[in-house]
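Standup notes
- DV: blocked on the single-chain target, sequence here:
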Amino acid sequence: MTKKSAPFFTDTVKRFTIWNVVVFLLMILLLNIFLITTISYSLHQSIDIRLKHEMENIIAALDISDSSITITDFSEFSEPDLVDITETPYFLQIYTIDGEVLITSNNLKYYKNIPIQTEGDFPSFIFKDIDVDNDNLRVGFISLSSEEGKRVAILQLATFEKQFKAIYNNLVTFNLYSFPVLIILIIIASIFLAKKSVAPINKIIATANGISAGNLNTRIDYKAKPDDELGRLRDTLNQLFDRIEVNINQLSQFTDHASHQMMNPLTAVKTELEYILKKERSDNEYKEALIKLLIQTDQMIKIVRTMLMISKQDNDSSKSQSVFNFGNLIQNIIVTEFAKDNIQSSIEKKVYVRGDSDKFHIVVENLVDNAIKYTNSDKMVSVTLTKNDVVANLIIKDNGIGISDIDKEKVFDRFYRSEKVEKLGIKGYGLGLSLAKLLIEEAGGKISIKDNEPNDTIFTVSLPYIALT
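- DV (later): unblocked, structure below
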């Protein structure tokens, strides 16, 4: 089955592109608003300074009394900007508070009527924008007062805002022509950036898709810092692949070991059946054969039951809330199941722990059975249960071959059996200690090994002690 290639313009790339275009356009819009505002302010400031300077010169050329205004310096009124319509003309009007025009500049004869404004006191220089037909004017106002402080008239001076209008129009024209091209460039750049941004993710996806049961050791190799988003994604997926690899390897080993362990009793059953069917046998021979078949069947049942319990424990993390007498449980197991074995016990009574008593029956049974299996028949196995205010300790000591430091951790792995045990021909399936550890840890306890290799092994099971009043 061929893999379907990802489309060039995916939804993620579309969203990324749209957001980029929107953000860039907003930035351009804000930039234009800022430029227009800044230019407007700067040009107005420049025009206002010119108007103010000219108005101050005009005021200096006047003599203002309570009832009249007299021109004392005609040269100021003869300047070209007040006489003709130059590139930067000044249109002067001095009028009374009632609106009667007293003095005007000569160039007003060649220009349109500029409205006067009588409302307002204008104690200081005030500047405004007005439109006269299609012309934009900047107008300055100031009240003229006598030496006694009496308000006599209003001086109004106007000039063109052509420079500002030209710059504004040029900016608008530039935007109108450049905007479509800019949008296309932004879209192309956004698509490029989007593809560039998702390229590492696509690389990670490609690597992840390439991982299968045949190459579980492959990992995502993308250079990024651990605290970077892509670095965190890489590490998270690699950790996930590590767990998957471990679980699949464990499953594979479990299957291999389970098949191997089941083959032994099945082979024995098959061999026994073939022996019986070769010829007629006596009743005693049939009986002996059936007993052997029963033993092998019991072994298979024990293997399957243990594997089912291990599998159930892997998938069930719930803890039992029941409390039981651990001392009574251990004592009953020793008396009923190991009465014929050499066991020296010292069991403290009324030791209560939390957990499933049936599961701890399996734990104690497996640990004691292991100790007996690895101890010579003429030697003693020691079983001790003690407690303090916090912990209940079950200590099982054998007088066997001991466990090396290398094997101490491995003995709790499923189906693990050391080379020494195999050479000695001690029977077992390598499941008992694995199951015991699972059940102990489920109850919040722990199991540890102390040995005196080459002889003796001590298993210590520590469980939270429950004090009952």
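- Follow-up: The chain has a mean pLDDT of 82.
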